[in-house]
Amino acid sequence: MGFKCGIVGLPNVGKSTLFNALTQTAAAQAANYPFCTIEPNVGEVAVPDPRLSTISGIARSKSVVPTRLTFMDIAGLVRGASKGEGLGNQFLGHIREVDAIAFVLRCFENGDITHVEGRIDPLADADIIETELMLADLESLEKRMPALEKKAKGNDKEARASLELMQKALELLRDGKPARMADIAAEQRRAYKALNLLTSKPVLYVCNVDEASSATGNAFSQAVAEKAEREGAGVIVICAEIEAELAQLDEEERREYLDSLGLSEPGLNRLIRAGYELLDLVTFFTSGPKESRAWTVRRNTKAPRAAGSIHTDFERGFIRAETISFADFVTLGGEAAAKDAGKMRLEGRDYTVRDGDVILFRFAV
Questions:
Q1: What are the distances in angstroms from CA 328 to CA 4, 60, 321, 356?
Q2: From 98, 187, 196, 261, which residue has the greatest number of CB atoms within 10 Å?
Q3: How far is CA 74 from each of CA 10, 12, 40, 193, 313, rounded to the nearest angstrom?
C-alpha cells in the first residue's frame, strides 16, 4: 500500500534542496533496504522506527525491512499556476496523485537568494499556494456540476449525493476557504475524498530556516506554527542546507555534525515521521528468523485489510490474526515466550490493528 506526500513551494524557498537531500538519503538506504526505487521527481524513504530494530534483534532476523513513505517533488508552482502559468497543468496533474501536501516555506533571509515575490513572508507564500489550489478546485467543480445536476434531476441517487458534497465544497471555496474545512459526516468521507479536491488533502507546513535557527526556529517559523495550530495542520522546522550536507556524510561524520549543531537527529527523520503522522498511518510488524518487517496501514484498519497489505491472498483467505503487542513482545523476549505467557491474542475479522502490533496472519485460499 503506497502513500505519497507531495512537496510544493514557490521558487527559491529551498524545496529542491530539501527534495534532493531526501532522494540522496533514499539512494543511500538502497544498499541496506530492498525496493528503494528512485525516479527524477520521486523519493521513497524508510520511516525511522527504532521498534523494528528491537523486534529484529529479539527474533534474530536475517533481514530487516522498514515501512516506507514516498515523497513527490511537485514542480512548476508560481502565482497563476491554476491558470497555466509556469508548468500549470503539469503541476496540477502531479499534485492530484498525492495523499497529503507539504508546503515548503522560506523562513530565512539571504540577500544572495532572491524571492520571486520580492520579500520574505512565509504566511503570504502559504496563501499563494493555497489560493492556487483553491482556484483549481473551483474550476474543477464548476466544470463537473452541470452534468451532475442533470443526472440528479433524473433521480440518480448517487449523483444527488455527490452534488450535495460538491456544493459544500463550493461554499467554502467561494468564501476563500480550503475544502478540507468542510464538516463531513463519517459515512460521507470516502465519497468526499473521491471528489479528488486539492484543498481537501491534509497539509504539513515545512519551515525552511537558516542554520542558526535549525534547533530553535525563528520568528518566521513561529508565525507559521501559530497558523498551523489555528488550522489543525502539521508543522516542522528544518534547515534544507544542513540536510543536504548530512546526506553526503557517513554515519560517524553525520553524528559529529549533528552534535556540533545541537541536534539529536536529522530533520529529514522528523519530516518523514511528520508525513507519516499527517496521513494518519500506523505501523504493524511481522517478525521471524528470516525477516522482520514493518507495514503501513491507515489508522482504524481491520485485520483482513491489514493482511491484504502483505498479499491479497492473505485478505481473501483470512482466518485470524495472532497478535502480540510491542511491549509484550519486548518484555517477554519474543513470540514463543509471549505465547507461553498468554499474551498472544487470537483476533478475528473485526479486530482493528493497533500501532506496534506484532502479527502472524493465518489464512487459507
A1: 32, 17, 16, 10
A2: 98
A3: 10, 14, 11, 20, 35
The pTM (predicted TM-score) of the whole model is 0.83
Q: What is the 3-state secondary structure (H, E, C) of 66-112?
A: CCEEEEEECCCCCCCHHHCCCCCHHHHHHHCCCCEEEEEEECCCCCC
DSSP code for 44: E
**Confidence class for position 117, pLDDT limits 50, 70, 90:** low
| C-alpha cell belonging to residue 99 | 495523499
Total residue length of the chain: 365
Q: Which amino acid is at 56?
A: S
pLDDT of residue 89: 52
Of 157, 162, 169, nearest to 191 by C-alpha is: 162
- The DSSP string of 232-283 is T-EEEEE-HHHHHHHTTS-HHHHHHHHHHHT-SS-HHHHHHHHHHHHTTEEE
d(C-alpha 190, C-alpha 18), whole Å: 32
